Records
---
Amino acid sequence: MEITEAGSREIIINLLFSYSTKEKDSPSAFEIMAVEQALPFIKAELEASTYNSYMEWIQRHKEMML
């Protein structure tokens, strides 16, 4: 089964949503970095407010880890 570029973007968006809506646990450093690295690939797929929300989520959790 081959994953298309559009399919890859959909997978990334689903992972971002999953990571950013975890209720019980704080995200791991890996999850934070994965979201940060994935955002440039899907920026065009997201509304500006959603993109900014993810950027704020990344910054907030990075600061909590320091």
---
Amino acid sequence: MKWVVLTYFIFLFSSATSRDLSRFAQEAEYKNEIAHHFNNLKEEHFKAVTIITFAQYLQKCSYESISELVKNVVDLAQSCVANKDALACTKSLRPEPDAVCKELKENRQSFLGHYVYGVARRLPFLFAPTILALGDDYELAVETCCAITDIGVCLEGKIAALKEKATEMSLWHEHSCGIWKMFGEKTFQAQKLALLSQRFPKAPFEEVYRVANNLKGVYKECCDGNMMDCMHNKAQVVEYVCSKQNVFSSKIKKCCEKVAIDKGQCVVEAGRDEKPEDLPLIAGKYVQDPDVCNHFAAGHNKFLAEFIYEYSRRHQEFSTEMLLRIAKGYEEVLEKCCKNENPSECYGKVEEKLQSHIQETEATVKTNCDLLKNGGEFEFQKAVLIRYTKKMPQVSTETLLEITKKMAAVGVKCCQKSEDSRLPCVERYLSIVIQDMCKKQEATLINDQVAHCCNESYANRRPCFTKLGVDENYVLPPFNPDMFNFDETLCTAPPQIWQENHLGMLINLIKHKPKMTDEELQTIFTGFSGMVDKCCKAADHDTCFGEEVSLLFS
């Protein structure tokens, strides 16, 4: 019984299925995983984490029942610490590569069932059609690797790539459902229309608009958790696109030859078709036409949808968020100018306004990518941390570190891309980070200016946060000298811990002095590095730190 409980516990504790082979290296280092976790966490925290794990996954069990399970796990952990070579302690949850190949061959249905179960459990926001498509990708990966000599290395690489892909898609599905929930179907459909117009620039407006409209039904069911209808509706949309593949894209022919389950994901990953070479300037219909206001008044929503379609298919290098901002800017100009006596003269300058926003966005991306390139990831995160601590000093140190680390990761991922892919990448992934931040804001108010940026407009979230300054309504906390209490551990700390201490000090400093200039902050950074260097060479580290901290923050 104890081995059964242990197996279940480690499954949950490590967030891995028994078929996950992507951590062979770690398993080699920690052959006895439960003993490693017990020694690392110590008994009190090990018990607490075990309780949390069981409580989250066995929600209908009473506290008494879970306590008994926890006792069994702790008893086994203690026995494994005492005898690390015991069979029950060293039995691997991850089979040898040859065993993986054998299991796929002998019991394919069970093999894939375990994989689908594991993905669905780890990524609850991932839609059913995508999970099934990932199952097929997993089967192909195993079949490919089992046909070569070095099966383990092959599996490790392919499964790591699949896990990254699944996680990314889960984030995007959760993000899309968040757009629907917070901003409604109009914003959701506009975002999908811009995306599809970039992907299928040769398809006529009516066809692209129809698919975008049908996707509303797909996402409604998927986001509500109705996975059977989600599967059915998505399959219908994909079949429609494939029935007119010559109309939509030259890149989806092979996708449409696949089995039903794999078609949808293949079409999503097929990439963008080349835009037509003979597209006329968009200004002809939307700026220079003297009847623009009549068209706008006759069919407001359809006219703007056509504008999004035309602008998006011409600018595949733009993010969907910026395309929606452009459409919103155009709409605002028409709403104002069409009330004037001479509307065409008024809206004739709309291109200048839109171009100004485009240049501002591109300059912001370039500035940040240059900062990352010249200073490296740590310095880039530090710069972002300074900005965001000033914007929302009410947020905890842990959350600020988490958010800015994700933002720095977006820079690392996107700044290396070509110029025609960089902006879509940056705004796509920043939208996901901001959405997560806004969910925290929804649960616990951060401040009014953050709430405004989160709630006013989906497309304008990123520029809104970029333009935020110091929160003028922030009430300074009482000074606590313990926040700047450093000791000799700084002298032996590995680089990652040293960086975390550095950033933590920075957050506490800004929370107490949010209007510090960059020059003043740089003086502190230089002084901090000098203090660490001096005190780590001193005979009495702690005394030195105590004296130098007083001078540094005086």
---
Amino acid sequence: MLTLYIVKDLAITELQLSYIMTALPASMIILAIPSGKLIDVVGKKKPIMAAFILWAIVIALFVKGDFLRVLIAMMLVGALMVLSNSAISSLQTGLVPKEHRGKVNGGQGFFRLIASSIGPLSGGWLYDNVSHEVPFLIQIGLVMIPLLMVYFWIDENEETLY
């Protein structure tokens, strides 16, 4: 659906699409080590929250985007993926006992796969039957849920157990 939206709705050429899709892994490679260092300096909570806020900005750039906006949005997606994945992994390491990490990672993967199957199905239906922009705009509201959960429930001042 993402590629379809970029090419059909935003009228971005196939060549421009290749540049956009290259921006994601390129930005992740460039930002991987600096993001890890940033997490060591500022903690885990702020990068996770920054990633959720970046996601809302990305959607706003993307929905009414042109080539440059979508390119920037994809670079921001790379940044937020590196920030959130690194910070969440680091947070889990400190919160979950070593003997339970496999179960926690397996459970997390299970629920991520459920969301990964429901998201495209519901997004595709909304894209076809409601509006091409609605599946993307809904994400702005949905991202507020984990943002608030992290804000209220994660206390980095607590001593990590593991």
